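FAQ

Q: What does a record look like?
A: Structure on top, sequence underneath. For example:
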């Protein structure tokens, strides 16, 4: 009995010495060495079968005491080493808050999208809803439902990008108007919609023209819609875009889908209407086309023109942006020059 006790006491002393290590892996090896199933303590316990019954209890208590002391020592040293590692890591990762912050390179909204968002929000504040339509449109919705006769120049293959004899890249967003009228009907009046989107026309690419550009169209159908309603909307839009002191001028024009039709000019902001190089000495700058919706367009979509009427207006987003920001070349919008685009970051 005394021999086994001595062995256990020696194991305890040796284990407590080896536990005092600064390496977690070594510490784990010590734990396995003494407390594992093949460790010396387990071997010592095999001697219990040779002991007298009255000696087994005391020997078992000693074994448990040795195991507990070694386990507690290992746990205490493990905790100490982990805490020391955390302290060391915090010391190594200390941030010097006096250093200047890293510059974050953020993008911005494209100037054309800024104009679209601005105009859309303006019309939403007046109760309009935004709608979209397909960019590959049928000849039926792009032309016929908008009162464009078969001999109209816009139907010529030289003016439009045809996908096949019956489909083309839309030349205006007015196809959304025809689709909306067809889907709604008189039982859902008033119809107030704005439809922004890309359109395509066969055109020379120069400082003021592009084969692809953006357009925004707004239209309303209801009872008793008149030119007075259209003029009031145009005046509010012009002042929202170009300043509260802007005035508008309506000139007679022709569009197959409106009657009467007008070209809309805004007084030049640079010279305040007195004449300068921007307005070509006229004092006015053309911004969009508009008019009362043609009775034929309303009739083809099932409206009774004796009861309802409406107006429509359409503008090129690039033209509005060029006038608003003083840009001279439409191609700047599409070449993705970061130096140009950074000027419009909000």
């Amino acid at each position: 009995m005394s021999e086994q006790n001595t062995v256990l006491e020696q194991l305890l002393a040796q284990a407590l010495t080896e536990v005092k290590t600064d390496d977690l892996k070594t510490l784990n090896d010590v734990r396995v060495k003494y407390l594992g199933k093949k460790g010396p303590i387990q071997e010592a316990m095999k001697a219990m079968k040779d002991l007298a019954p009255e000696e087994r209890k005391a020997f078992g208590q000693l074994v448990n005491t040795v195991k507990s002391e070694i386990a507690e020592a290992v746990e205490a040293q493990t905790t100490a080493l982990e805490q020391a590692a955390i302290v060391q890591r915090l010391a190594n990762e200390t941030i010097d808050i006096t250093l200047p912050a890293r510059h974050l390179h953020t993008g911005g909204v494209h100037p054309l999208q800024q104009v679209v968002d601005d105009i859309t929000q303006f019309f939403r504040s007046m109760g309009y809803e935004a709608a979209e339509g397909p960019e590959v449109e049928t000849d039926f919705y792009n032309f016929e439902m908008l009162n464009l006769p078969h001999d109209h120049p816009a139907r010529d293959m030289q003016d439009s990008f045809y996908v096949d004899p019956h489909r083309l890249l839309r030349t205006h967003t007015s196809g959304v108007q025809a689709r909306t009228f067809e889907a709604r009907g008189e039982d859902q009046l008033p119809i107030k919609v704005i439809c922004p989107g890309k359109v395509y026309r066969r055109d020379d690419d120069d400082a003021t023209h592009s084969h692809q550009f953006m357009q925004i169209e707004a239209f309303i159908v209801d009872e008793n819609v008149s030119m007075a309603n259209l003029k009031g909307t145009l005046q509010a839009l012009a002042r929202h875009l170009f300043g509260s002191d802007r005035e508008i001028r309506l000139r007679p024009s022709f569009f197959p889908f409106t009657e009467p039709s007008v070209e809309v000019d805004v007084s030049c902001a640079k010279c305040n209407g007195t004449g300068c190089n921007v307005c070509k000495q006229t004092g006015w700058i053309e911004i969009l086309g508009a008019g009362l919706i043609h009775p034929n367009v309303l009739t083809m979509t099932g409206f009774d023109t004796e009861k309802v009427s409406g107006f429509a207006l359409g503008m090129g987003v690039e033209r509005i942006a060029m006038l608003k920001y003083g840009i001279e070349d439409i191609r700047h919008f599409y070449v993705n020059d970061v130096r140009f685009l950074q000027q419009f970051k909000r």
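Q: Is there anything notable about this one?
A: DSSP finds eleven helices and ten strands in the chain.
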